[in-house]
Amino acid sequence: MLKVILFLPRAIYRMFQYYRLENEPNTLYPLLEKHVRTEKYMVLAYENLNRRYLDKERFNDAIELTNWRMKQKPSASYYFKYQLGRISLGMNDFSKAAQYFQEGLDEFLEVKSPRKIALLDFYNGLARAHYGMENFDETELYCRDVIDLYGAEKRNRPRWLAWFARKDADEIFRVLEQTQDTGTLAYAHQMLAYVYHQKQDQDGWLEHLKKAAGVNCYDSRYKKLYGTALYNAKRFEEGLNVYKQYLDEFPDDIELVFETSRCYYMMREWDAGIAFIEPYLKINPEDDKLHLGLGALYAGNGQFELARNEYQELLRLESTGAGRLLSTIEEFEKRSNQDC
Predict the structure, then answer these.
(1) Which pLDDT does position 274 carry in this prediction?
(2) Measured between alpha carbons, how far is 115 from 307 in angstroms, rounded to an integer?
(3) For residue 282, what are the domain limits?
(4) Would you tell me the crossing angle of helices 182-198 and 202-214 to the nearest 10 degrees?
(5) Which of 34, 81, 276, 277 has the fewest CB atoms nearer than 10 Å to its CB?
(6) In the predicted model, what is the mean pLDDT of residues 139-149?
């Protein structure tokens, strides 16, 4: 028992030493070899340091660390080549990434009873690398490998569709529809919507978010995402209808109540917006966003005294929205005075 008590502080101290010395690989590696005696803890040390390097975009240090570990444990070189592939993706060196992923996959397939989840990682990495090089035929090939492995499993969320935005992507969706995996199908539409959004293709973006929201799956957040997209596209009436559908299922989502009030505000439907939000505020009197939403609607409706009451409530709640509401009130008061 005494040995354990004495060992723990020393182990914690050494752990801090590793982090402190991460800037000095030549000092760090001998320290790890000396003190980390078991493979289990060496794996943990490698994964933690590698993650820190990647988070800080210190890719060369991550490569050096991974090569050092691969020399230490050549029997698991396929794993370290997979890691080198991930690092290369972070550097946008897609050709090198494809090379590492392919080498690692070839070695991994020689392992007895290879795990499906690891195969998915390799295929996903290869799809991303080939997509980056605009080798779309190869991208499709590896996407189909993923479908063959996991297409019918509801628990899976294959991210490869985020990287696969070709014109014939509808064929991929038909395959997913046949599996009746509604969760993956909705997620796939969401990922593809983001690709269109990055390309500034608003129609494609909204189309696939609408399809995600329309899939009869257990996750209703896609309706919320679609409503927010419509709001951002200044299609407020459509966004309002989608938000109301979501609130029918999740009436306690106060964040969405506020977003819905913003739709009324942007449509200048002051009375309807006030009638909508007041019942929620009676149930949640300490929610600052509801006071902000109601105050803005009062201001738009010319009910400045009531709007300032909401401003006072925000001050009481020490809300950062107080200044925002005050600016809105003053702007509408100014317009009102000009009209007079």
Answers:
(1) 95
(2) 61
(3) 252-340
(4) 170
(5) 34
(6) 66
Q: Where on the phi/psi map is residue 219: left (φ > 0), alpha (ψ -120 to 50), or beta? A: beta
Q: CB under 8 Å to 295, separation ≥6 — which residues? A: 306, 307, 309, 310, 311, 314, 325, 328, 329
Alpha-carbon gap, residue 79 to 218, rounded angstroms: 35
In three-state form (DSSP H/G/I as H, E/B as E, the rest C), the secondary structure along the chain is CHHHHHHHHHHHHHHHHHHHHHHCHHHHHHHHHHHCCCHHHHHHHHHHHHHHHHHCCCHHHHHHHHHHHHHHCHHHHHHHHHHHHHHHHHCCCHHHHHHHHHHHHHHHCCCCCCCHHHHHHHHHHHHHHHHHCCCHHHHHHHHHHHHHHHCCCCCCCCHHHHHCCCCCHHHHHHHHHHHCCHHHHHHHHHHHHHHHHHCCCHHHHHHHHHHHHHCCCCCCHHHHHHHHHHHHCCCHHHHHHHHHHHHHHCCCCHHHHHHHHHHHHHHCCHHHHHHHHHHHHHHCCCCHHHHHHHHHHHHHCCCHHHHHHHHHHHHHCCCCCHHHHHHHHHHHHHHHHHHC
Q: Which of 176-190, 214-228, 256-270 has the lowest mean pLDDT?
A: 176-190
Domain assignment present for residue 340? The answer is yes
Residue 208: inside a domain: no
Amino acid at 59: F
Domain count, the chain: 1
CATH number, domain containing residue 334: 1.25.40.10
For residue 209, being part of any structural domain is answered with no
pTM surpassing 0.70?
A: no
Determine the average pLDDT of the residues in 324-333: 92
Residue 329 lies in a domain: yes
Angstrom distance (rounded) from CA 258 to CA 294? 9
Backbone angles phi, psi at 148, to 5 degrees: -60, -35
Nearest to 290 by CA among 273, 305, 303: 273
